[in-house]
Specification:
The chain is α/β, with parallel strands linked by helices. The chain has 10 helices and 7 strands. Strand 5, helix 8 and strand 6 form a beta-alpha-beta unit.
């Protein structure tokens, strides 16, 4: 099959953003300790189940959460220009994340970004915040992310994957190019998965430009 060029699949928390928004939010509202958050990145932990468990007891009004998120979250450098670059070059770009609409929607709106995205859905109830992942359709988050990479490859694209955590490792193993930071960078180095350090999305843009697409 003739290559259609490149597609990009990226994680959101700690990748598109500089810090994991969900972790920062849960710490700020005392819903999870630093140790509990660190333990969530153990290889055996299913991130989607962890998110469901730790968001459920959170009884904070939506507007208060959104206000804190909008005030405290920083976008990784170059992402807005990178999104425009992908649109201009017709390079498919999508977000596959274990994060939730509660904060991702308001951040994308703030940054005026319209991107094909997959992430968790929240419902505010008297019992707390319920998190669901209809996009997973029974799969685990790490398998779902890998499946998004595989889908583009079946369609004839090479795939650049950007991520930062344990749920990104399966996708990184399959991708044609990997841009990694934090835990994913360490795991890739330990497992011999070739990768480039993700500092700024303009580095990803430069790479794709050099590839001729």
């Amino acid at each position: 099959m003739k290559s259609k060029g490149w597609a990009v699949v990226t994680d959101f928390d700690g990748t598109v953003t500089l810090k994991d928004v969900g972790d920062v939010l849960l710490r700020h509202f005392n819903a999870a300790t630093r140790e509990e958050i660190e333990n969530s990145y153990a290889p055996h932990v299913k991130m989607e189940e962890w998110m469901m468990e730790y968001f459920r007891p959170l009884k904070i009004p939506r507007k208060k959460i959104e206000a804190y998120v909008l005030e405290s979250t920083r976008l990784r450098g170059g992402f807005i220009k990178f999104n425009a670059f992908c649109a201009r070059r017709r390079i498919p770009l999508e977000i596959a994340s274990g994060g939730v609409d509660l904060y991702i929607d308001c951040l994308l709106k703030k940054w005026k970004l319209r991107i094909k995205s997959f992430y968790g859905r929240t419902r505010f109830t008297k019992a707390g915040i319920l998190v669901e992942y209809p996009c997973l359709k029974g799969a685990t988050l790490d398998v779902f992310k890998a499946a998004r990479v595989s889908r583009y490859q079946r369609l004839g694209y090479k795939v650049a994957f950007c991520g930062d955590g344990t749920s990104d490792l399966k996708a990184a193993r399959l991708a044609d190019a990997v841009f990694a930071t934090k835990r994913l960078r360490r795991f890739c180095l330990e497992e011999g998965v070739r990768n480039r350090r993700l500092k700024n999305f303009l580095d990803v843009q430069k790479f794709l430009t050099q590839q001729g697409k």
